[in-house]
Design brief:
By secondary structure, this protein is mainly alpha-helical. The chain has eight helices and four strands; from the N terminus they run H-H-E-E-H-H-E-E-H-H-H-H. The longest helix is centred in the last third of the chain and has 23 residues. The model has no long low-confidence stretch (mean pLDDT 88). The structure holds flavin-adenine dinucleotide.
Length: 258
């Protein structure tokens, strides 16, 4: 988008008719996936620094002309007939969505197979109610798995499901299974949801505890030494080295756990 196209798009978002939620549907937004019109309300530039950030792309028509804002399409099926607009959650009314999204250059004639909606995760306040073995403290016959435990994402949900299943099988066979160490991705996740999360001051747990993707911030810190012969260690190289050290440690610890 050019600057004019972007400004017209933001104006359209700001004046769009929204879906009205019932009182019981009103929930605080997860900052990781705000509706685009809420981002537009926060500031004219917010989208340009969020899902529409024009960075890391070369303009195929003229490499010297930088886009003012971009929209990413992610291919959704092998046929190439469905494309998903990345980061475009919205609660705008359906009719308005098609009208506004056709303002995006290239999408003037797009057909919309599925319109945007907000998804709401319903999840337990796991740090309070689940034990480290994913059992409900109040009724240990029950074990929880997947997104309902407060993780987010395919891999994360599957990882918690795998652990819950193996723990249940271990109990059944009289060989209880410990969770993987917290230095592994699976261990870091389960540790976060069942104990590692710290409640933010002034929040009741349910609001402070929000769905979690796996990320390097969940792993215990690791000390690394600056390589010899380097006067100044660039922070990008240091981050890369730290991540390499964390993943190497994770693989070693996962293998001995397995
Ligand atoms: C629009 C959208 C886009 C997403 N994009 C991504 C992405 O790009 N990458 C990513 O990693 N994650 C993404 N996610 C998140 C990901 O889809 C979920 O984290 C993951 O699918 C959760 O898996 P799950 O098995 O724990 O739960 P679910 O997949 O929600 O499975 C729960 C199942 O339980 C069933 N169920 C519920 N109640 C009952 C009941 N009472 N009786 C019987 N069955 C019941 C439901 O019908 C459902 O089939 C996205 C989610 C949404 C909504």
């Amino acid at each position: 988008m050019t600057q004019d196209e972007y400004n017209a798009f933001v104006d359209a978002l700001l004046s769009a008719e929204l879906h009205q939620f019932k009182d019981w549907e009103k929930v605080p937004y997860f900052d990781g996936c705000l509706p685009i019109e809420v981002m537009a309300e926060r500031g004219r530039e917010t989208l340009r620094f969020g899902p529409m950030k024009p960075v890391g792309l070369t303009n195929p028509r003229d490499p010297l002309v930088k886009a003012y804002a971009i929209v990413q399409l992610r291919q959704d099926n092998a046929l190439g007939s469905l494309w998903n607009m990345v980061g475009f959650q919205t609660k705008m009314k359906y009719g308005v969505q098609a009208e506004i999204f056709r303002m995006i250059p290239g999408l003037q004639n797009a057909q919309f197979a599925r319109l945007g909606g907000l998804h709401r995760n319903t999840f337990l306040n796991s740090p309070k109610v689940l034990g480290g073995d994913l059992r409900l403290k109040a009724d240990p016959r029950l074990r929880f798995a997947g997104q309902v435990t407060g993780v987010e994402g395919y891999v994360e949900s599957a990882a918690i499901g795998l652990m819950a299943g193996r723990m249940a099988a271990g109990d059944f066979h009289g060989k209880p299974l410990e969770a993987p160490p917290e230095t592994t991705a699976m261990g870091a996740l389960i540790n976060h949801i069942t104990g590692g999360h710290i409640e933010a001051e002034g929040y009741s747990g349910a609001r402070s505890f929000q769905p979690m993707n796996v990320n390097f911030g969940l792993f215990p810190a690791i000390a690394i030494a600056k390589p010899e012969g380097i006067a100044r260690w660039k922070s990008v190289d240091k981050t890369r080295a730290k991540r390499k050290a964390i993943t190497t440690r994770a693989l070693t610890d996962m293998m001995s756990w397995a």
